[in-house]
Design a protein that fits this description.
The chain has a 5-stranded antiparallel beta sheet with strand order 5-4-3-7-6. A 3-stranded antiparallel beta sheet has the order 8-9-10, with no helix packed on it. The longest helix is centred in the C-terminal third of the chain and has 8 residues. The two termini are about 25 Å apart. It is mostly beta strands. It is built from 2 helices and 10 strands, in the order βββββαβββββα.
């Protein structure tokens, strides 16, 4: 699995440790890696990045969101079998019904 990601930022290359990534969202043809309050754009697809991440450390919440399991603080059930996911830093994400089983098995709920 990936240990580090190389990201171009303002003409330089930042090496981001995957263990520092808290959550990932889709941004068109890019993914946005969120780490320590900052976002880094990487030209990659969600499917490809998901395949390169350790499934014991990350879980997909919906088509456009992946989260580090140990960053999840609370789950709040919402309508139609979805969850609002609260992270340790206060970020609120939502899961979809399609990925509910992934989330429940990852958290052993």
């Amino acid at each position: 699995y990936l240990a580090r990601v190389s990201i171009k930022v303002n003409g330089r290359i930042v090496l981001l440790n995957v263990e520092d990534v808290e959550w990932i969202t889709s941004e068109g043809n890019y993914v946005s890696l969120h780490s320590k309050g900052k976002g880094y754009l990487l030209r990659e697809t969600m499917n490809r990045i998901e395949k390169n991440l350790d499934p014991a450390a990350f879980v997909r919440l919906r088509r456009s969101t992946i989260v580090r399991i140990n960053q999840i603080q609370e789950l709040h059930p919402s309508s139609k079998g979805e969850f609002e996911v609260l992270l340790k830093d206060g970020t609120k994400l939502s899961s979809s019904r399609r990925y509910r089983k992934n989330l429940q098995s990852a958290l052993k709920v």
